[in-house]
Design brief:
Length: about 60
């Protein structure tokens, strides 16, 4: 399956592997790999842990 790329600055369609946009001429950021199932799970666990720590801090602040 062929992937379509767009300029991060002007939104123009880019040829695959383009370092600069043919429309606005600005350099493009390197592509970021899509998260895998394992990294998605890690991010969810990190978010849950963060919320738990915030809740604990609020409860401790109320009690003491």
């Amino acid at each position: 399956m062929k992937q379509t790329f767009f300029c991060v600055h002007c939104g123009a369609s880019l040829p695959e592997g383009a370092e600069a946009c043919p429309v606005c001429g600005k350099r493009q950021l390197p592509p970021v790999p899509a998260p895998t199932g394992r990294s998605r799970l890690a991010m969810r666990l990190l978010a849950a842990l963060s919320l738990l720590l915030i809740a604990a801090a609020v409860i401790l602040r109320i009690l003491f």
